[in-house]
Amino acid sequence: MQLTLPLLRQTARPSIINSLCSRASLPAQLPSVSITRQHYPPRAPPIRPTSQPTRTMASRCSPPGSPSSIPDGGKLRASSIRIFEKVSTLRRWRQRLLLDQRSVAFIPTMGALHEGHLSLIRAAARENHHVVVSIFLNPAQFGVSEDFASYPVTWDADIEALIKLDRELADDGNNLGRISALFHPTTGEMYPSGFPGQELASTGSFVTITPLGDILEGKSRPTFFRGVATVCMKLFNIVQPTRVYFGQKDVQQTVLIKKMVRDFMLPLEVVVVPTTRAEDGLALSSRNVYLGERRRARATVLYDALKLAEDAYKSGARDRAAVLGRAKLYIKQVQGVQVAQGPERRTQIQVDYLSLSDVDTMEELEVVDGAKGGILSGAIWMLPLEGIREGEDLGYGQGPRVRLLDNIILPPHDE
Asked: Mutual orientation of helices 301-314 and 320-340 as an angle, nearest 10°?
């Protein structure tokens, strides 16, 4: 069974519109365009896996590092956080909260937690009595040739981060709630009829949101949003949250989830939290651990380019060429500088897309309506290093190709 929806108009949430991030510095080799550096508050270093797991289709039904010694619904050590692996057990726990009329926030994750995830939990704890976090590495949102088999797994570090954050929330008198539960299901639990497969032609019970799920990220990753919408629908039905929290970094995902909630009349609120960034402006992502030192030094190229496009909009540009022109030029300059360097020094960057789109549909715009604003977004690939120096940090998984996403919301601007 496949559910396909026509695209409907939806108003962007103010928390997205108000999220405007500051720029990082431009490389010194490119004097023709300039960016002013703004310092970001220090962030905790990313959690880096110490070894690469081997994950096969058979192992997908067993969460790595699952705490088998804790009974389903039991508490993590030295913590009030309950851990659930079964849908039925979680639902019984949730039913009691419903009878007590307590609000429940939900943050779905695939693990490899970083400061961005923790910021979502903090936002949820301020507004809700209970916070539920899920860690489920969903194979359905990975394509056949994508990085499911090597995706970072940091279960022990994730648990430590949640326990530490829960203590922080308990000591902060400004919070309404704390982390009450962690949902860590198996693939078999989430797909009771059997996992339908990662191929585009797979058959099974899916949720598809079109045409929104077929453009931009959906064009490059044709099964991605099908997997995201399907697993989120399942998780929302299981947890039955009052509010769900997502980060703005994956802006197309937030627009798609809000549309799904509206079209299926789900009784919950979607809250979008501003992107958490490193000090140089790079959006935090679980996949950043793949970069290694050399590629990490050039990883802000996309954000720097989007900031140039934002500057053009603020200066009065409204048509597509004027808004995106300097951004495209900047990336070409960076690519040219890198190509001119030797294999042991350069970083290869490939652009997938730069987009100027509508805030409701993410369809491309030729002209931005100043009364409505728009979305700047993009995706690039950081390719594997060519010449490798002795002892060079390649990143997790020996430095595979890394996809980086970013976006900036263009707010309505009085003409």
From this structure: 150
- pTM for the model: 0.85
pLDDT digit string, tens, across residues 153-165: 999 999 999 999 9
Q: Is the peptide bond before 384 cis (omega within 30 degrees of 0)?
A: no
Q: Which residue has the tokens 């990975």?
A: 142
Are 261 and 270 in contact by the 8 Å Cβ rule? The answer is yes
Q: Which residues, at least 6 apart from 87, have a Cβ–Cβ distance to it below 8 Å? A: 185, 189, 238
Give me the catalytic one of 117, 129, 130, 184: 117
Instruction: Say how far apart CA 349 and CA 195 lie, in whole Å.
Output: 35
Q: How many CA atoms lie within 13 Å of 409's alpha carbon, on the beta-carbon side?
A: 25
In what helix (H) or strand (E) does residue 270 lie, and over which residues does it extend? strand 269-273
Q: What is the pLDDT of residues 373-383, one digit of tens each?
A: 999 999 999 99
Return the axis-axis angle of helices 115-127 and 155-171, rounded to nearest 10°: 40
Instruction: State the DSSP code for 27.
Output: P
Residue in 183, 85, 95 with CA at minimum distance from that of residue 134: 183
Active site residue 117: yes
Do strands 104-109 and 130-135 pair parallel, antiparallel, or not at all (unpaired)? parallel
352: which 2 tokens?
């997938």
Question: What domains can be seen in the chain, in order of their start residue?
Answer: 14-38+281-410 (3.30.1300.10), 58-273 (3.40.50.620)
